[in-house]
Amino acid sequence: MWLCQPSAHHLKEMGEEELWELINDNRHRISLGVRPCIVIPYLRQARVLTEMDEDEILSCHNLTNRCMRTSYMLDLLRTQGRNGAVALLESLMIHYPTLYTQVTGRKPSTEPSRFSGLIKYSELTEYLVRAVTGMQKELQEARCEAGRMSARCASLELEIGQIMEQEEKSRCLQSENERMQRYLCSLQRDVTKLKDEKCDLYIRYTAAIEEQSAVNERLHNLNLQVSDFHSSLFCTLGNSEMHRKIFFFLLLLDQKQCLSLQVEQLTLDCKMHQQKSTMIQSQMRELQAERDQVRNCQQSHHLNFPVCCLLKHFNASLFASHLTSLPRTLAPPFLVRSRPKAIRVNGRILSISFQGEELLRQLTVVGGNKTGVFVHQVTEGSAAHTVGISNGAQIVEVKYEQNHKALKMVLEDSTLEEAMWALSQVTGLCHLSLRPRQDDYEALLQQLRSCETSSGDSFYVRVNMSLPAGPGGTLAVSCNDILHVTNTQPAGTEDMWYASQVHPCQLLDLQSGTVPNYYRLVVSFLIPGNIPLAFQICRVVAQNKQKAVRIVSTGRLGRNPLWVSVEGEKTKSVDSGTKTCSSCVTLMPYTLVTPHYPPICRPVLLLPTVLGRILDKKLAGWQGFQLCEPGKKHCVSSSFSFLYTLQGIHCVLPLGLDCVRRLHRSEIFPIIIYVGQTARSARKLRSKLQRHGQSEDQLLACSRSEEPLLDKLPCLYHTVAPDSWCDQTSLLTSLRTIIWEEQKKIVWVEPDLW
User: Fold this and answer.
1) Which of 89, 101, 320, 694 could form a disulfide with 689 if both were Cys (CB 3.0 to 4.6 A apart)?
2) What global pTM score does this model have?
3) For 87-114, what is each residue's pLDDT tens digit?
């Protein structure tokens, strides 16, 4: 019931407070029943919601469910006053007629007179036509979906019926099995009883034999007595013929009677034992037949018993069919990098448009890729100050037009250097996307004041060329050094970074200083006129026996492939007045790296491969080492996941360089050792090579072919100088020491540059 609902006649005459009181009284019902994405198009056309409001309602991470989004939409409409309330009720009348009736107490209608006039008649008619068409389409889709679901339900019901029939059969078989089990138990009891009876028969048989022995003994004694009697009688009768005949006759008669009695007794015993034996054999045959029958029944039951598990399997299959995989994070358009994630704060993003001529004169920025880039100061009276930009706002994105092309630069986690370069490119009208983060801005300022940090930048790079020390605290670095860059815009310098060398075994900053930034090093090689730095680098290459330059190229173009994402920008040629690179394949003085800490013993990969195959078995003979040969148990597979099961063991890998990236994808980071070769060092291994069917020339050819490929590895490797060992024993000793040292180091890995 709706006791206090307004009549149709007075709905248009209601004031703002009355309308919102009516809506608030039904706020719970509206929040539960309305989907914002359905009514927002009408509210947008009625101009009570903006595009920014729509994005915030539908995309804000703080609004975790539909009710919260609908409630937040009502709060935004409340700020529009009476128009917001009228537009909301009209959208309910179009899309939720039942709810409209519950809220207002009147029936919905699409007559133009029933609308407030917030939308023109022609636009309203067009919207209603689209709404009706959309509803019809949704109804048709809903009917089709209902048909599909009905067919699916019917098939599922049929399958469930079949499964229930199989379950019923299984229950019958189970009951039959239980009955057979009970019958088998009774048979087993009968067998036990028969065994007991058989034991009793053996006991009685033994007693009978003992009794028969006693009887035989008594008969023997009786015969002796009879013999004595006969002897005395023979002596008494004398030697007369007539007496001797009588004596022998009596003797023969007595023996015949005794033998007849014995035969009769033995015959009776044999018959009795034959009967007992026949009875026992018959019982054993019956018992064996019953046992075979029970065994056959059990086998038949076991064959059908898995039917009981079909329901579980069916449910598991249904569950598995609904599993979805999360999409993988897309890589930036330039060089893929892994670095500490910039601070993210879910909040409202404001888009402000103004004239951005000389934008860096209108405002200054602080921060970096670790903290985000913030507006620090705004010039009073400038266009940025006029539109209300204030300090503490994070610059998320900048859009502008250049040479009649719309460009967008994402500064969400760019360095301070890249952010300032991007803002310096703005000419004319620009659009800044800002996110209020006053607390994080104040925390950054506190760190800057206390000298805890010099900027908001923090990332790690691998140096690809040796650089000499210079004036003003310029840091001397070698090729393959790891640097921690903490400021890309140090004060009092130009085109320099402030960085620190990193401890090889700990994430600890060591010696610090400035180094030329990425742009300066690239331009020094590409632009004529920048000769001094290139000459110094070439001189270091000539004087230093160790590797001084690592040739790394990338197919991704841009001013600096480390960061800024520029959408809509095409490749430009390099000249003395622009800060972009000109070659499709450019030299990279630095590459971004991320640290990894292998939790177990790392595998060992020896190069060149010809020498590695000779030394692999030697290393595998050491304690704590194992040769992992392809094709054998516990050996290298496509995923290499078995390596993590070999705790405390270094796996010696008889593989080539092509396996390194596959191992890294499986989070396995091998120790790569390259033993340099010369003609002199190859002669030291002549006997070993000949024993394995190899020659010195083959070893040198393999070394020359694999050494250039080492620069393409995404990780560091250790090189053994050819003159640092004299024979195989000293080489193996050096390898053991190298492996022990490399195991303690942090593994720095580059992303895929292509």
Assistant:
1) 694
2) 0.53
3) 898 889 888 889 989 888 888 876 666 6
